[in-house]
Amino acid sequence: MRLDVPLAKRRAAGAIVSTDPLITIGKHEDGLPMGLASLFPERFESKPSLHFMGLDWTAEPPDEVALIAEELADARRRLPLARFVFNVNTHYEAALFSRAGIPNIVANGMSFVDERTFVPPPAPFAERRYDAVYTARLDPFKRHELAAKIPTLMLVYGTPEEGELEHVKSILPHAYYANHDVEPGRYQHIHHSKMSALLNQCSVGLCLSAEEGAMRSAMEYLLCGLPVVSTESVGGRDRYFIGPHTRVVPPDPDAVASAVADLKARAFHPIAVREYVSRLVAFDRHNFLTSANKIIERELGVRDRFRSFAPFAGAAVRWRLVSEIEEEFDRR
Fold it and tell me: What is the DSSP string of 110-158?
C-alpha cells in the first residue's frame, strides 16, 4: 500500500465477513501489517474480534517471519481483545510460522479469487487476438523482458511508477497496453468486473516473477479458462499449476515463448481448464472452512459460523478504496 496517498484514496484488501461475532479477512502488507485491524484499530478495541490474515508477499526470505512476529506482538498489545490467524500460501510457510509461534492455516490466496467475476467467454473457440496476456505491475521484479519473444501480447497493469511504462515499452514495443487504450495517452484503472472481457481475448496467461506471494492473476487466468505459462518461482502460485494446461519453465524468453506457442496450439476448451482448477480450489476451500469454524468456536465461542465460502470469495484478495471499506463498516 502506498503510504504517500491520502487515506481515503488508498487501496487495501479485506472485508468484514461477520459482525456477530466480529470477524474480518485481510492481508498483511506494508503499512497495514494486521489488515483492517491496523487500518481501523479503534473499531476493534471494545469487543473480541478475529482476523484472518493473508500474505501480500512470500514469508520465505530470512527474517520475514521474525518481523511478522514483532508486528503481531505490537498488534496484540494495542488490541488485547483481537485474535489473529495467518492464511499462509504454502506448507513450508506454515512450518516457519508454527516454529515462530504464530497461529496459521494453509489457505493459499489464489483460492479466494471470486469465480463469479472471472468467467470463460460465451463462445469458447472464438478467435483470440493475443497469444498471451500478462496482468502485472510494470515493476522490474515482474520480469516483462521474458515475454519479449511472444508475437502478440496484452499487458494489464497497475498505475506505473515514474519511468516504468517507458522502460517496459522499450522492452516490449509490440505489446498492447490495455490501461492506456481506454483513454489514449492516459492511464485508466480497469475494474475487476471488466477483466474477463480482456482475458478472453488472449490464448495464454503469463506469470513471470521469480518471487512474490500467491499471484492472484494466475487464478484469474485459469478461471477464465486460459492455460498458464509460469517461470520457476517462490511464493506459492504454483499450488494449482497441475495438469496439462500449465507449464513451468526456466526464466528464458525462448522457453516462455515456446511454452506459450505449445499451449495455444493445444486449444484447450476453456470450460475444461476452469473445471479442472475449480475442483482443486474446492478442496482447499472446504479445508479452510473446516479450520476457520473450529478456530472461531475456540476463540469466540460460536459453532459452525460459516457454512459457505461465499462471504470470503474475492474479499481477501480484491483491492478496494479504503473509503469503500470504511463505508462497509458503517453500513453494518
Answer: GGGS-TTTS---SSTTSPPSEEEEEE--S-GGG-GGGGTT-SSEEEE-S
Residues 80 and 18: their CA atoms lie apart, in Å, by 19
Other beta carbons less than 10 A from residue 189's beta carbon: 11
What string of DSSP letters covers 42-88?
GGGSSS-EEEEEEESS-S-STTHHHHHHHHHHHHHHH-TTEEEEEEE
DSSP state at residue 233: -
Can you give the pLDDT at residue 181? 87
As a whole number of angstroms, the longest Cα–Cα distance in the chain is 59
How many other C-beta atoms can be found within 10 angstroms of the C-beta atom of residue 128? 19
Whether this model's pTM surpasses 0.70: yes
List the chain domain ranges. Answer: 7-112+279-331, 130-268
Average confidence score pLDDT of the chain: 94
Which residue matches cell numbers 474479499?
315
> Quick one: fold of 130-268?
Rossmann fold (3.40.50)
